[in-house]
């Protein structure tokens, strides 16, 4: 059912057909209502998400001192069909760097990290195939990139 869709996801395009079939076997699916929080900045990451339908806004707490009292969130990105989010924490092994909220009705495929790694090995190794993209994301989020190439 999701084989063709998975093939269109940039993160998973580099996988062999047999690897993608394994991913399809462990996919979960969840629906979210408008405004519903999907992930929260600072929480531990155990899965990542691929947008099947709808739109997700990615928000990050403002880093300015003036905003720290009221925890103001700033929109940093939007994800739509075929795009993914929540995977950066899996690469860095740090808490989630941003929150994600449904914009309208949203359906997401969910990939559990433990199942992913059991089938395909460490996420970091697979995601290294997209290393430049992650380094750019790290710079955008944290002002510097961690060394992901080791």
UniProtKB/TrEMBL annotation:
Matching InterPro entries: cAMP-dep_PK_reg_su-like, cNMP-bd_CS, cNMP-bd_dom, cNMP-bd_dom_sf, RmlC-like_jellyroll
MF terms (GO), sorted A to Z: cAMP binding; cAMP-dependent protein kinase inhibitor activity; protein kinase A catalytic subunit binding
Annotated compartments: Cell membrane; Cytoplasm
Keywords on record: cAMP, cAMP-binding, Cell membrane, Cytoplasm, Membrane, Nucleotide-binding, Phosphoprotein, Repeat
Domain Cyclic nucleotide-binding: from-to ranges: 11-137
Family matches, as SMART domains: cNMP
Cellular-component GO terms for this entry: cAMP-dependent protein kinase complex; cytosol; plasma membrane
Source organism, top-level taxon: Eukaryota
Entries under Pfam families matching the protein: cNMP_binding
CDD domains: CAP_ED
Main subcellular localisation: membrane
Family that this chain belongs to: Belongs to the cAMP-dependent kinase regulatory chain family.
Function: Regulatory subunit of the cAMP-dependent protein kinases involved in cAMP signaling in cells. Type II regulatory chains mediate membrane association by binding to anchoring proteins, including the MAP2 kinase.
Record-given protein name: cAMP-dependent protein kinase type II-alpha regulatory subunit
Species in which this protein is naturally found: Anguilla anguilla
């Amino acid at each position: 059912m999701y084989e063709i869709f998975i093939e269109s996801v940039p993160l998973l395009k580099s996988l062999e057909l047999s690897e993608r079939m394994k991913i399809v076997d462990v996919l979960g699916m969840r629906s979210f209502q408008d405004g519903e929080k999907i992930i929260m900045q600072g929480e531990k990451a155990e899965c990542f998400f691929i947008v099947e339908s709808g739109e997700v806004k990615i928000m990050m707490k403002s880093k300015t001192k003036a905003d720290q009292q009221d925890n103001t969130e700033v929109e940093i990105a939007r994800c739509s069909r075929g795009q993914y989010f929540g995977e950066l924490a899996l690469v860095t092994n740090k808490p989630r760097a941003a929150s994600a909220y449904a914009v309208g009705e949203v359906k997401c495929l969910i990939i559990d990290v433990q199942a992913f790694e059991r089938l395909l090995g460490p996420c970091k190794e697979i995601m290294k195939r997209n290393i430049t993209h992650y380094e750019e994301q790290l710079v955008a989020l944290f002002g510097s990139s961690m060394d992901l190439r080791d």
